[in-house]
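Suppose you are handed only these lines of text.
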Amino acid sequence: MEAWQKIVVYYFSGTGNSENVARWMADIAKVKGMEVSLINIGKTVRREIEPPEPDALMAFVSPIHGFNYPPVMLNFLFHFPKGQNKVLLLNTRAGMLIGNWITPGLTGIAFYFSALILKLKGYSIRSMFPVDMPSNWISVHPGLNERTVKYLHERNQEKVYRFAEKVLSGGSDFRGLYEIIQDVLISPISLGYYFVGRFFFAKTYYASADCNNCDLCIKACPVKAIKKVDNRPYWTFSCESCMHCMSNCPKRAIETGHGYVFVIVLLSSLAFSGLFYHYFKLLFFDIENTLLGFTLESAIFVGILAISYRLLHYFLRFKIVERIVVYTSLTKYKFWGRRYKALKKFQENFGFNPDKH
Ligand SMILES: Cc1cc2nc3c(=O)[nH]c(=O)nc-3n(C[C@H](O)[C@H](O)[C@H](O)COP(=O)(O)O)c2cc1C
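From them, the structure of the protein bound to flavin mononucleotide can be written out as follows.
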C-alpha cells in the first residue's frame, strides 16, 4: 500500500460540519508528517482552480443537500481541471440521536454523481465515506439539543480519525456503497430537490425587525445569494439554503417564514385545484394531470413565489405585518429555533489525541 506525502482537502460548509471533517482529516495527515492544504471552496473563484500536483491525494468534503451534493460543490467539480490523482469523497449529512444510536442521514446520488464527474476527468476514486453529523436544517425540523450535538461530534471525530488513518496509509474505504439500494430508490427525489431547493427554499428566508443592517449575512454568504433591497437583506434564487446566514446572524434576526409559505402554498394550490385548469381548458385544451400541466403549474408557482416574496419584503417594513410573519415562523420559538453551528472546539482536537487513532 502506498503511503501518501501530500493531501489537498477541498471542502464546502454552511454551518461548519464539513469544515470540521476536513480539519479532522488534516489532523491525521499532519500527524503522519504529510503536507496538507485545506481549501474552502466557498471562498474560491471556481473558474480559476489550480490543478493539484500529480502526486497529491485529494479529498472532497461537502454537506448533503436534498440527497445530492449542493450545486456549489457540483459546480466546483464541473470546473475542476483534469488529472489522474486518487480521490477521497466524503459527505456530512443529517445525523440525529435516539438513545445512544446515531440515526443515519441519506446520501442519495451525491457519491455516484460526483464520482462520475471526476472519473470522466481522469481521476480515480479511493473512498466514499459518509459522516452523520448533527443535522443543521432547522427550516424543516427543530434544532438539536446540546447533548446530541456534542455526542455526534465526539463519535464522528473518532470515526473520521480511524478512516483517515486507513486511507492516508494507502487503504480505501467504500462504506458509502453499503447504502446503494436506498440511494438509488431516492434518486428521483434528489433531481426534484435540485429545483425545489433553488426555487422554493431560497424564498423562505427573511430578516426580522431585529436586523441591524450589519451586512454580515451578505458578506459571508458563500454563494453571494443575499443582496440589499430597500435597505434590508433579500434572498435571491441563488440561495442554496446552506444555513450559514441563519446560524451566524449576531442578532438572530434571520428566520424561515413558515406561516408566510403556508399561506402562499395554500392559495396557489386552491387556484391550481380548479380555476387554472378550468380556464385553460376553456381557452385552449385540457392539460390536467399531464407533464405540460405540471411544468406550467410549477413555473407559475415560482412566479407567484417571486412576486409574493417581493411583496413580503416590502410589507415587512410595517410593524404589524412584521410581527404576524415573525410569530408564524417556527424558527422564532425556543422549542424549534435553536440555531445550529458545528462545535469549534472540535477543530482544536478537543479531548482527542490524533496519535492514538
Ligand atoms: C437544505 C438542506 C438540505 C439537506 N438535505 C439533506 C439530505 O438530503 N440528507 C441528509 O442526510 N442530510 C441533509 N441535510 C443535513 C446536512 O447535510 C447536514 O447537517 C450537514 O452536516 C451540514 O453540513 P455543513 O455544516 O458543513 O453545512 C440537509 C441540510 C440542508 C440545510
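What can we learn from it? The mean pLDDT is 92. The domain at 198-332 is CATH 3.30.70.20 (Alpha-Beta Plaits).
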